[in-house]
Every structure is written in structure tokens, then in C-alpha cells.
Amino acid sequence: MIQQPSRLISLDAMRGFTIAAMIVANFPGSEEFVYFTLRHTIWNGLSFTDLIAPTFLFIVGVSIALAYARKVDEGSPKGELYRKIVIRSLKIFAVGMFLNLMPDFDFSNVRWTGTLHRIAIVFLVCAFLFLNTNWKQQAWIGALTLVAYWLAMTQIPTPDVGKVVLERGQNLAAWIDRKYLPGRMWQGTWDPEGILSTFPSIVTGITGMLAGRWMLSRVSPTEKVSYLMTAGLFTAAAGYFWGLTFPVNENLWTSSFVLVTSGFAAMLLGAVYFLVDVLGRKKGTKLGIIFGANAITVYVLADIFALLFYRLKFGGLPLNEKVVTGLINAGLQPELASLLYALFFIGINFIPAYLLYQRKIFIKL
User: Fold this and answer.
1) Is residue 345, in this structure, part of any structural domain at all?
2) Is residue 307 part of a domain?
3) CA–CA dist 26, 37 (Å, integer)
4) Does 303 fall in a domain?
5) Counting Cβ atoms within 10 Å, is residue 164 exposed (0-12), middle (13-18) or buried (19+)?
6) For a designed S-S bond to 232, which of 214, 266, 289, 309 qualifies (C-beta 3.0 to 4.6 A apart)?
7) C-alpha distances in angstroms, 108 versus 94, 176, 177, 185, 251?
8) pTM here?
9) Comparing C-alpha atoms, which of 265, 205, 263 is closest to residue 85?
10) CA distance linking residue 145 with residue 133, whole number of Å
11) Tens digit of pLDDT for each residue in 160-174?
């Protein structure tokens, strides 16, 4: 039997702060004025914003290990677990489709991929893997997937280009999207959450499951922290050196990107776990816990609020433009004005998150 820890406040807080960071990055006051590190890297490279999505998928993996190890120990029938996993994945995917269709619900021009879609797929595959494989098999599956993806992207020529290319819209992943991905693509001729790049994103979830397995092990809390930090450091370093030949790239979700971001997430989890759960320094975690309690619900509400705010006109301008313009006219740097609006928007989203938390309403998709 696996040792079951008490609920990890650190993981709850980390989940909530990750969602909050995602909202800040997704909804600046002005797309024109954004600090570099709050933008997604155009192609190769890594910014703060590029770390957010893989960190959330890593947390999904950790949560799978913590939740389903307990269910297996309780003797829950696998058939019932499979049913719940599939239903939850379909619900998350459906909500993603709803957001993609807003506000016009033009089914002829719908996008079939997105953040929630990828979360749904990663959760589905990783949960099934967790229930049917041990940690060593999961590690091998993850490693072989990353190597296979690397070889495919760097050795198989793009059919309509006639050579191996890793540039935007010309690589093998883009060609597969154009050939097989239905509907509209985010970048016209390719999609950052397309078919081929979904495979290494699943490995991000697997790395989270491996970290979750370690959190369930019968070792002392300080040993858990030490191994998380050490494994994270070596994983990130391996990703960096792999990136010299297969660049760190979020749009392609390259193998090096998986290792660098998973290494960062492991070190972050180790640090937050040490501060919060080991040392008991819980001050400052409440905001993250409240957002994390209904993480996907908050993410959905942010999309809805953003649409409403854009349609509300103040002096002929949407609310975000009105606020940013006013702050710039008051003498603030444009990027700072845009960031302050994003923080104000986080405050707006905190209100329903807080009300749900206070009433102990936890919407589990």
C-alpha cells in the first residue's frame, strides 16, 4: 500500500497561482503593450509565460498520482474509474469547445484545439496510464515518446517542403495539422496545440505523475524536497543541452521544452512544498488556494468576463482600453498600465472564486 499524505496545501496553492498567472498573461490591458516575459516567445526560447501551461499540466500529473493512488488503495473498481475519467475529459473538452465558439457560435469556422482541449487529452491519457502501469513503465513511455518525437521532427522531411524544417508553418507538425486537423487553426496554417505536439505534452503530465509518486513514497519530507529539487535541476539541465540541437520551443512543445519546463515545475513544487507543508509557512497561500479550488471554472469565467468587458463601451472604448489609456495619460509606462489592468482583472475574477470557496462549492469538471 502507498502511503497517503495529508492534503498538500502547497499543490493547491501552486495550482491556483498558476491559473492566476495564466489569466494575467492571457488578458493584458493592451496586446500592444506587454512586458517581454509576459508574452509567449515568438518561436525558439523561453519566457515566464511559456512556463505556465506546462506547469499546469505537470500539476495535473501530480494530482492524478495523489487522487488515483488513493482510489486504487480503497479498492475502487477500475471500470468505474475509467468511466469517470472519460466523462471528466469529455466535459473539459466540451467546455473548451464552448469557449472557442464564443461569442458567435460559428460552427463552420470552429477551432478544435486549445488549452482546455490539451488538458482534457493529457488528463485522459495520463490517468489511464497511471491505472495500468507502474512508475518505471511510465518513465520509459515518457522517455521513448520524447526520443521518437525528436527523431520524427529532425529526421523526417516535411512532405510539401522536401526537407527537414523546424520553422513556423513549415515543419512536420504543421504539415500534419494541415493534413488531418479539422476546423480552423490558431495560426492559419498551423496550430500550437496541434496533433503531433500533443504527444510530448502528455509526457509533461507523466513527469508530474512521477513527481506525485515520489510525494507518496515512504521517505521523510526533507528527502522528498531534496529529490524533487535534484531531479528538477538535472531534468532542466538535460533539456537545456538537448535544446542546443532541438530548440526549446513551446509552439512545437519540443522534447527539450518538456524537460526544461518539467524540471522547473519539479523545483517549484519542491520549494513550495518545503515552505508550506514542511515549514508550515502558509501565510500568502490563501489567494492561490481559493483560485485553485475551482481552477478550471475560474479560467472559464475569465474568458467570459473578458468578452463582456470588451463589449462594454466607456466613451466609445472597451473597458480595458479605457483603463490603459487613462493610466498612460496619467504618466504611467504603457507596459505597466497594461499589467495593472491585468491585475485588476484578476481581482474581478477573484470575487466569484472567493464566493464559491466560502460556500464550499467546488465545481469539478
Assistant:
1) no
2) no
3) 13
4) no
5) middle
6) 266
7) 17, 21, 18, 13, 25
8) 0.94
9) 205
10) 15
11) 888 999 999 999 999
